[in-house]
Amino acid sequence: MPSPDTAVRRTDYTPPAYLIDTVDLAFDLDPGNTTVTNRMRVRRNPQAAGAALLLHGQELELLGIEIDGAPCHDHRLTPDGLLIEHPPQDFELRLVTRCHPQENTSLMGLYVSNGNFFTQCEAEGFRKITYFLDRPDVMATYTVTLRADRQRYPILLANGNLAEQGELPDGRHYAVWHDPFKKPSYLFAVVAGQLVCREERIRIGSGEEKLLQVWVEPRDLPKTAHAMASLIHAIRWDEQRFGLALDLERFMIVAVSDFNMGAMENKGLNVFNTKYVLADAQTATDVDYGNIEAVVGHEYFHNWTGNRVTCRDWFQLSLKEGLTVFRDQEFSADMMGTESGRAVKRIEDVRVLRQAQFPEDAGPMAHPVRPDSYVEINNFYTVTVYEKGAEVVRMYQTLLGRDGFRRGMDLYFARHDGQAVTCDDFRQAMADANGRDLTQFSRWYSQAGTPRVKVTGHHDAAARTYTLTLRQECPKVGVEMLPGTPDKLPFHIPFAVGLLDTSGHDLPLRLQGDDGAAATTLVLDFTEAEQRFTFVDIDEPPLPSLLRNFSAPVIVEHEYTVDELAFLMAHDSDPFNRWEAGQRLATRQLLAHVEAIRRGELPSVDTFVIDAFRQVLRDDTLDPAYRELALTLPGESYLGEQMDEIDPAAIHAARQYMRQRLATALHTEWLAAYHNHQTPGDYRPDAASAGQRGLKNLALSYLSELNDTHVTQTAQVQYEHANNMTDRLAALNALVNGGQSAQEAASAALAEFYSRFEQEPLAIDKWFALQAMQRATGAQRVIDTIRTLLQHPAFTLKNPNRARALIFSFCAGNPAQFHAADGSGYAFWADQVLALDALNPQVAARLARVLDRWRKYTPALRGAMLDALNRVAAHQGLSKDVREIVDKAIG
User: Fold this and answer.
1) Domain 758-891, CATH class in plain words
2) Which residues are designated catalytic?
3) Of 32, 197, 234, 613, which alpha carbon lies 20 to 30 A from 597's?
4) What is the pLDDT of residues 162-203, one digit of tens each?
5) How far is residue 1 from each of residues 5, 475, 649, 883, 884, measured CA to CA in Å?
């Protein structure tokens, strides 16, 4: 475990000893040596103690320091930065520093990508640009002057509004930008280089005109239309839904191919990974189009939830991220245009939560939505902070209603605009705006782990009542396993339920003692360790529909029979629970197959599963997108989490066996679905067309299990004639995973794909990822293909997208091959973690997380996994980022 001395603790928070009111930065941009002149107005914080001023700094050369115009000698450099021993109460501090952007492979601070300058400052990158109080509760107004060679860097961008620009001697030019809104340093941004933009002018509700720009490298300009449309939709939606308007004269998005994250919400100048900006029919899939809309919305929504109101400290990260993920989920759901579309979006979001966050909640890196400590803050940009944090925000809306949630948001902004605040401040605004006591609800922020809710029901025919008994428990996880940690207290869980009669209709629900109007779905305030809820006027034993719309991030335990699950799958009016019933049915069958395979027995698929799939496949009243989700089997990683010991090989064999049986038994239905859901004409990325393609390509995926030459020919024809990347990539996937009969066609298609898209980096990322996640064919191991691809001229570890496409896809997305019995996958993982750590510790730490659940695997695998972890841990010079992960994993 990391040393307690290295950890930063939430309870140790103290206000900054000094505040910075204004920052005037001047950059003389040069890729080898950039000089930054920083003039700040600094004053002692009347709310804090301490006489010395420590300014954070990393990898900087200090060229000069002055206080109120005179050289300062009362300072020294420390491992953490620049210490000024006895500064005045109120003064101007001038610092001149030099940094080296071209050498900055960490992609934090100021760096160079493809000859252009970019910055990434969240969480602690600004300290690589200049010495500063690099913490989110120090907010200042910024004026930035950029100077550079005009020919090499014709575009000079920074936060806020353009105040001035002009020419300088020797072929140089300058631009001055001023941001009128106070912001913390993590929201600072600079971009300079050979860029062009798509721009639009719109009027917001007040009548003001706003300039919108999407900046990219010249060859990518045609791929920016969807990002611009998404931005306009987000601006309109936020003003309509929450009354939040764009507050600057302009709003800019800039795309860069070298980026550690998806995007960054710098005030008025969002910097994006190209993956979440660039799209056209030939290079982007339906999923890409949806992700672009969501991420553009997410970063724009941060303008208020994160920028105008920001975090007091990094422990409050979910204050902005969880809230903004919830907002982008609601935005994307509304953009779907139908109730069925909203249901599809909800299911997709919950799948991410269950597949990624629930395992994190049970592993060594488990932490509350508001963590209590960290060694490296970059390691806490997690699915717990983001996705579980979004579920916590959603629970406010479930408890308070949509109007009540809006009242809480309005009060939150009225109280805290321009401030750095806490999760408790947000909760208090919600409580005060609605007259509710939400004290117990705060446990969602302070207690880690996924609560389990056991549900039993009892019908009393004489009293005409039905009683649900709910019991909640949440086991200790992560550091809570240490001796002396107190037991957890009950959560406040909004538990939405419905009751179905024997015809499948919703019963009107009213709780005993409640004189209000009956409803078909009730949200129960579940606040005790065990609680009973009695419904009146229930004449016959009902079938409960539990946790409708996934109203809380919990695991529900209820002993449904197979017949009951099939009934819910056919009749439940709640579309999420209808999908959930099918997933439970499939999971139960698959886990039985896993146990049979582990015993050396031949599994068999029960007819009720095939019949249930057939019914959904034939049900044309259901949207194609919904049917695609309902007919997709639970993933291998999710199935592993349902087992006491994960056996990746047996899970893979069981899932493949079931896919093959479904392919064979429903061959006619799959063919009909494939032919009936074609999308002729020009490509359209709208939800309805994407749903048609999704179901069609799922059918092709199932048919490819048959090792049939006719299916191979169908996939070849689709590949050759596809007018969009969604269909082309689906056909290529069917060929690559189509068995021996498709191997020759697969090799030819892979070669053609690379030749066609060699100059399209995002398409080539897909090419690498598809091969990394393929199933093994014959004697060819996927690990051997991966090692060959590492030597491919298009592969580089320095680009995070490319590393994620090949290495992460194999290690995290191909469990059967990665967890090979010979340990080759683990040796490969260790090699790549160490190689990445030398270049980019933040990306390396993400890869390191792949083995943090090693204790849950079979004994045969655990030893090799631990050996790989120990090998990484023993490496000299390991970054703090990776050290925290592997030490916590090893324990």
Assistant:
1) mainly alpha
2) 299
3) 613
4) 999 999 999 999 999 999 999 999 999 999 999 999 999 999
5) 11, 21, 31, 9, 7
